[in-house]
Design goal:
The protein has 158 residues and is of the alpha+beta class. Helix content is 32%, strand content 36%. The chain has helices spanning 2-23, 46-49, 62-68, 73-86, 108-111, and strands spanning 31-32, 34-42, 52-59, 91-98, 103-107, 115-116, 118-124, 132-134, 139-146, 151-155.
Length: 158
């Protein structure tokens, strides 16, 4: 009888491990954000010489990723508060506003190193366009450069 109980315990433990692995609890899904620093740099004539709002959005699941990647920056900035309130476990974001000529350095401690489905940077330009960039695969020091009508994000050269 004792041998049978031990067998049932082992089977139960094995089934629990399989279930944890299947739901992602044992082996978390997603890409780990691995940025040592984020530098936001607005050129002197950035955003047609107007302040530019910038959000770094950490999307935590695939369902939210499908929703957020459909948004232009203008739509993101209009919907972000409602999305955060409605789906608090699906995304988080950090916000800044830069004036032309300004540079902000954000330490990695402010960003953390979560596992994400994606990271997007949205810039609220006065000119139309998607004004978003997907950046979760970048590593090390990251630089976002904001020009008159567009922006780019890349790993900084060392």
């Amino acid at each position: 009888m004792n041998r049978t109980n031990n067998l049932f315990k082992w089977i139960a433990a094995l089934l629990l491990l399989v279930e944890l692995a299947a739901c992602g609890s044992l082996f978390p899904k997603g890409t780990r954000v691995n940025w040592s620093e984020l530098t936001l740099s607005a050129a002197p004539g950035a955003n047609q010489n107007s302040p530019v709002a910038v959000d770094v959005v950490m999307v935590l699941d695939d369902a939210m990723l499908a929703r957020v990647t459909e948004l232009t920056a203008a739509k993101w900035f209009g919907a972000r508060a409602d999305l955060q309130k409605t789906f608090p476990q699906s995304l988080s974001y950090l916000s800044w506003e830069l004036v032309p000529g300004q540079t902000i350095r954000v330490p990695s401690s402010a960003i953390g190193s979560p596992r994400v489905a994606a990271v997007l940077v949205f810039a609220n330009y006065t000119t139309p366009g998607a004004n978003r960039v997907r950046v979760e695969d970048l590593k090390g020091p990251i630089v976002a450069r904001f020009d008159a009508q567009s922006f780019d994000v890349s790993a900084a050269s060392r």
